# Entry
Amino acid sequence: MNVEVTPLPGIGVRKDFAIRNGRRVGVVTHRDGQIELIVSKSDDPDACLASLPLTADEAGALANLLGAPQLVAQLTEEQRELPGISTRQLPIKANAPFDGRTLGDTAMRTRTGVSVVAVMRAGQVHPSPSPDFTFTAGDLLVAVGTSEGLENALKILKNG
Amino acid sequence: MDHTALALIELGGVFFFLGVLGRLAGKIGMSPIPLYLLGGLAFGQGGLIPLGDIGDFTHLASEIGVVLLLLLLGLEYSAAELFTGLKRSWMAGLLDVVLNAAPGVVVALILGWGPIGAMVMGGVTYISSSGIIAKVLGDLGRLGNRETPVVLSILVFEDLAMALYLPILTAVLGGVSFLGGLEAVGISLLVITVVLVIALKFGRYVSAIVDSPDREVFLLRVLGAALLVAGLASAMQVSAAVGAFLLGIAISGSTAENATHMLEPLRDLFAAVFFVVFGLNTNPASIPPVLGWAVVLAVATTLTKVATGWWAARRQRIGRLGRARAGAALVARGEFSIVIAGLAVTAGAVTDQLAALATAYVLLMAILGPVTARIVEPVARALQRKAPRTETATASS
# Structure
């Protein structure tokens, strides 16, 4: 993907790229760290349809939404030859039992046989989290296991 | 009532009145600068309420206002941004100078104000208001537009041009000979180059001198450094404002950001005083005779700015609507036109009519600029529908 980086003197930086239908999608990062999501208009590619200010948390959540399915799809693709194994995203919700606790605390592998292969946080992939990896609300766990194991894992994350 | 009490009451009255005006400007979505100018006209010489007791303070405060305006302008840009801006926009920047200084120069010559008046008016009509423009672009959600970098790099060029123009103007206003003028050009070019190189290579050392984790110490250091540099520059006849601008460029990174946050309220306060003082020193009775010329200049320089933006955007292969937007965005004039006129008036080298014309012109352009930027798109679209061309037929359907 060819991301175009354009300095905006006195304001910040614009980073965007053209998607398949020719429209531009990207972000304007202000110098004080504020982020704006931009989407170009269809009838006037120079102009922006929307210019949406996002807080750091909101930007992180959006990045998770966009990034996690792609990671899951990739892992699913890689495990196609292994029947019975699937990949799922498991969210850590706010005030969930494991918000603020570690992966080790869940005893996930022992209880369900499921492996947490990555954690998506604020659009960043944290691969192979160690048992002392501390979860926070908004994290998306990418987990691999049997369908039954994954169901159980979801329940554990929800109910403790 | 004793002198201090009266001065405090007068000053408080002025600030409070400006606060009311600023709120009004915010409500109707316009720049407060024209209202401050009108406020200044209402007070003082020939106005409704004479202000006698705070003259000394407001004079110094307005000088500090200019220093802070330019310091924060310099803080906005890093030296690297200035270089890329210059590389990208020097052709459009030169066209900008020629097209937009010309109307001011011509009108000043017609009115018989001589070469100095022409130089001042050229500057007044040339320089766009980067403050108003940046705000309008943000408000209209155009920061992500493709034509916006074009607009911003023209503004960068204009600000560098100011750094060259102000010392020359200061020298000319000081009554130096042609040779002395050339010397001033040489010195200012040299100083600007040296400062830019220092800022680019050793910016962090300059930042380290003023930086401090303690807010109070930081504020005092930045403000102290700015006034010191401005004063020294002024003593060397290189214009106090430019000294502050160059210091702003040399301070970079997070230090610049923190300094901007901290100095913004101070800038707004002292700059407001500056606009009021400029209005104060202008006799409202002298405006009606030059109002016709102000309107002529307003129309002419609106067209020339739109042409500049259009041409610059076309060179970056931006569509017709984007070109129109770029042109209209550049129309606003404001603080720096008044800074230039203020320098000339303080030096006493030009007629009082010039102050009146500059005031009327900035009043018109500071209001007209944001309006133009707002209405350009519907107008351009309507024009496109009326005269559909093959290039844009699909866009307007």
